[in-house]
Structure formats: C-alpha cells, structure tokens
Amino acid sequence: MSQEKRFVKDPQALQDRLQKVNVGVKRAGHLVHQLLALARSETDAPVQTLDAVQLARSIAQEAAPSAIAAGVDFGFEQAPGLDKLSMQGHALLLREAITNLIDNAVRYAGRGASVTLRVRSESGKACLEVEDNGPGGPQEAQDRLFERFFRASDAPGGVGLGLAIAQEIAHRHGGWAIASHVLPHGLRVAIVI
C-alpha cells in the first residue's frame, strides 16, 4: 500500500500530517513577517513626536488577547505619575520592536507564566521593557540574544530574528536594547530611546 493511500485510510495519520504542515506554514509566515520587519527597519521612515505611554498602552491592548490565548498572564504597567512621555520616533517600527519583545516573552516563558509590558522614564529617555517569569534561558546565552537567527531554546515558532529586529530598531532611534535575567528566574528586555 502506498504512503498516500495509508494517510487517506488512517484519519489520525492524516490529522498528524496536516498538523505538521500547519506548523510549517505558520513558521514560514512568521519568518517572512520578521524579514519584512527587518527590511522596514533599514528604511528612512519619517520621525514624529510620539507619546511612549500611549504607544505602549495601545500595543498592550493589541497583544493581550493572543497572550491570554497562549495561557500567559499578561499585564501593562506605567511608572507612577507618568501620564505622558514624549519621544521622537517611527511609530510603526517601535510597534514592531515592542511586539517582538512581547511575542518572544510569551513564546519562551510558556503557558502559566506572567509577562508584563512596562513604560517608564530613565534619565529623560523612554524605557519600554517586557519582563517575564519564565525560565530565562542560560546565562551564557545572554550575550547572544540579539544575534540574528540565534535561539536560546527550541520553543516552537521562533526564527531567531525578533530580538535582533528590536535591537536594530532601537539603534535606528539612537537608543539601545538590553536583556537581563530576573531573579529567581525570568528575563527582562528593555528598549531605551
């Protein structure tokens, strides 16, 4: 009996095969999206005055449903007394960078974890950070987190571009991205502009 006929007669084998195809298609789509975001980060988009608090709140509202669907407790915090924080930037690129941080935290922290998007002022600069209480990855991998195509674990769906794109966008805004482990476990990734 040919391989093709076996799948037709075995519904479970067909379901398993379709699941693998679905995962592959989602991964390819995610890779294409990330490569397009990387290309966009290398263009000269117009700079405008943005409110970092409003931008972060809007991103949090958009990200919450998928984080909750992934079984993650997702939250948003702004520094006490910080109602507005003006900054110069490219709204579309910054949205992409922060969304990448959230997606990475949700994916790698895993079901049952907590992920928080925070906005605060740090020495007059806007600091947008995403913190999770997941495993955090190995300490020796921290220096490589922003390398293109580097993946600290085999969590499904990642292609190793999210943090590299976030860092590139931060640099294009005259800022930086930094990752630090949170004790007793977890990871915090911040973009400071």
End-to-end C-alpha gap: 62 Å
CATH architecture: 2-Layer Sandwich
Spatial strand sequence of the major β-sheet:
2-4-5-7-6
Tell me the number of helical segments per DSSP (H or I, 4 or more residues long): 5
- Reported by name, the CATH topology is Heat Shock Protein 90
Estimated structural class: alpha+beta
* Count of individual domains: 1
What's the alpha carbon Rg, rounded to whole Å? 19 Å
Can you offer a commentary on this structure?
- This protein is of the alpha+beta class and 193 residues long.
- The chain has one domain: 2-Layer Sandwich (Heat Shock Protein 90).
- Helices cover 45% and strands 22% of the residues.
- It contains five helices and seven strands, in the order H-H-E-H-E-E-H-E-E-H-E-E.
- The strands form two sheets. Strands 2-4-5-7-6 form a five-stranded mixed beta sheet, covered by helices on one side.
- Helix 2 (11-41) runs parallel beside helix 5 (162-172), helix 3 packs parallel to helix 4 and helix 4 packs antiparallel against helix 5.
Keywords:
193 residues; alpha+beta; Heat Shock Protein 90; two-stranded antiparallel ribbon; 5 helices; 7 strands; 45% helix
The gist of it:
The chain has 193 residues and is α+β, with helices and mostly antiparallel strands. 45% of the residues lie in helices and 22% in strands. The protein has a single domain, classed as Heat Shock Protein 90 (2-Layer Sandwich), CATH 3.30.565.
